[in-house]
UniProtKB/TrEMBL annotation:
InterPro entries: Ig-like_dom (IPR007110). The keyword Transmembrane does not apply. Residues 21-136 form the Ig-like domain. Keywords: Signal. This is Ig-like domain-containing protein. It comes from Cotesia glomerata. It comes from the Eukaryota. The keyword Signal applies. Residues 1-25 form the signal peptide.
Length: 264
């Protein structure tokens, strides 16, 4: 006589049940939320559409922000929320009257803490299914500047500075339509003081050049440029040479005096 464990017996019963004609299971048909949204705006909706088979029971809908559960709905009970969306949700009648087809979280206003990956999980007694999508809450830059400063007789220093953008942006220096690769980036404690600077030391341009600083915020589509037209200034080179000559004379004099005293 063959003996079956309780676990194997349950699996066999479930397999027989879900292969019966008319069984459709659970399927998420739509997961919709903004890809990017401006901080402080709203309302917005997080929509999870799904289809439940006619034999399914024990429906539980959950939403997660990254790894934290922020929402649970067990119809016909009202939804329960916690975490970053606590106190910021509202539920219109049309959003809660079809528990077998969709779950909609309506956020009255978004904030920076809401950036992250959102997961909608649909559970029944027989199945669990989940889908995820990322949303980024952003703040545009408050200030974007591009500077061209004299570096030495043959080179200039290009500086791009952005302040206030969140999350941390990407800066690009572009000269006459070409992106520069020889650049350095400086970021200091961006979480508390959103400030970023990018520099590039390049050969001086003898002809007028269009220099641009471009800022982009990853995951948002936000893009902005500031530009200046650089003209080669011969006077700056002349002034630079005049500043070098006295220091060069002093250096030569010091070497000469050192030589005299060492041989005296």
């Amino acid at each position: 006589m063959r003996h079956f464990s309780l676990k194997n017996l349950i699996i066999r019963i479930l397999l027989i049940f879900i292969t019966q004609p008319g069984y459709n299971g659970v399927k998420i048909t739509k997961l919709k939320l903004p890809l990017a949204v401006h901080n402080g705006t709203g309302p917005i909706e997080l929509i999870c559409g799904y289809r439940i088979g006619r034999h399914e029971n024990g429906l539980v809908v959950k939403w997660f922000h990254d790894l934290e559960q922020i929402y649970q709905w067990i119809p016909p009970m009202p939804p329960q929320v916690n975490g970053i969306i606590s106190g910021l949700t509202e539920y219109l009648p049309e959003n809660t009257n079809k528990p077998l087809s969709h779950s909609i979280i309506r956020l009255k206003k978004v904030n920076l803490a809401m950036t992250g990956v959102y997961t909608c999980k649909i559970s029944t007694i027989l199945e669990d299914i989940a889908e995820s999508r990322r949303m980024t809450v952003y703040v545009p830059d408050q200030k974007l500047n591009i500077y061209a400063d004299y570096y030495n007789n043959t080179h200039i220093n290009l500086t791009c500075v952005a302040k206030g953008a969140r999350p941390s942006p990407i800066l690009t220096i572009i000269v006459d339509g070409k992106q520069l690769d020889n650049r350095s980036i400086r970021i200091e404690n961006y979480r508390n003081y959103p400030w970023i600077k990018q520099e590039a030391i390049v050969s001086n341009y003898s002809n007028p050049a269009i220099i641009q600083c471009e800022i982009t915020i990853p995951g948002t589509g936000y893009r902005k440029r500031e530009k200046l037209i650089y003209y080669y200034n011969k006077q700056l080179e002349r002034n630079y040479n005049l500043q070098l000559r006295p220091s060069l004379i002093i250096a030569i004099t010091n070497v000469f005096l050192t030589f005299i005293f060492s041989n005296g």
